[in-house]
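> forwarded from #structure-qc
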C-alpha cells in the first residue's frame, strides 16, 4: 500500500489544501497509508468508504475481477451502456481510473496468482 501512497504523496507535498479526502475500497486502504503525509496545519476530514482492511478470499476474488477489468479496459461509453444507472461522470472516472492502473502493481500488492 505504501507504494501506491508514495505515488500520491506529491499531491500533498505541493502545498495543496484539502478539506475532505475520500477513499473508496482499495483507495481507502491507500488513504490510510497517506495519513502521515497529510498537512498538519488544519483539520482534514477523512472518509473511508468500504475500505479493504483485511485481505480475505472475497478480496482476492474481487482483485481477480479488478485485474481482468484492467486488462480489458472499457471506455466511458461502454460503461454507460453496461451500467445505465451510473452517471456519465462516474463512468468517465471509472474508465480513467482503470486506464491508470498497472496490472503488475496490483499483483505485487496482493501477491496472488491471477489468470487474466
Amino acid at each position: 500500500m505504501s507504494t501506491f501512497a508514495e505515488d500520491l504523496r506529491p499531491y500533498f507535498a505541493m502545498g495543496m489544501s484539502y478539506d475532505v479526502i475520500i477513499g473508496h475500497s482499495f483507495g481507502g486502504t491507500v488513504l490510510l497509508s497517506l495519513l502521515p503525509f497529510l498537512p498538519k496545519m488544519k483539520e482534514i476530514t477523512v472518509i473511508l468508504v468500504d475500505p479493504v482492511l483485511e485481505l480475505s478470499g472475497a478480496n482476492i476474488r474481487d482483485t481477480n475481477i479488478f485485474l481482468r477489468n484492467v486488462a480489458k479496459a472499457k471506455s466511458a461509453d461502454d460503461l454507460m451502456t453496461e451500467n445505465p444507472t451510473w452517471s456519465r461522470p462516474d463512468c468517465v472516472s471509472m474508465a480513467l481510473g482503470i486506464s491508470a492502473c498497472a496490472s503488475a502493481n496490483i499483483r505485487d500488492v496482493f501477491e496472488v496468482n491471477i489468470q487474466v
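QC bot note: Helices lie at 2-13, 26-34, 57-71, 76-82, 88-99, 103-110. The radius of gyration is 16 Å.
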